[in-house]
Fold this sequence. Notes:
- The chain is mainly alpha-helical.
- The chain has one domain.
- The protein is 78% helix and 0% strand.
- The protein has helices at residues 3-42, 53-71, 76-93.
- Helix 1 runs antiparallel to helix 2, helix 1 (3-42) runs parallel beside helix 3 (76-93) and helix 2 packs antiparallel against helix 3 (76-93).
- The longest helix has 40 residues, at 3-42.
- The mean pLDDT is 82.
Amino acid sequence: MSDFVTDSILAAIELPALAENTASRLRKVNSLINQADIHLGKIAGGPGKDPDFDHHRKEIKVFLENAAKKAKRLPTKLREATLRRILDIAEQAGIEVSI
């Protein structure tokens, strides 16, 4: 069998696995972002008004940084859209996230 045929067969086998990995990774990233968004919704009135304000901000930061790490392995357009969502939530919470 020629190298071209062998490479084509291997690519055809690996392509569905790659797509599945992307879909799985995207679900994980979205889950982390949604958790951060839930904590953002729990911040009531900001510092001084919510006794758990700092706790929620720390949780948001952890969720978003984990999401950003996983998002770096997404295809370009998905990665860019996801990182924009992460930065938007971080801005609303008043935190910095390393991307």
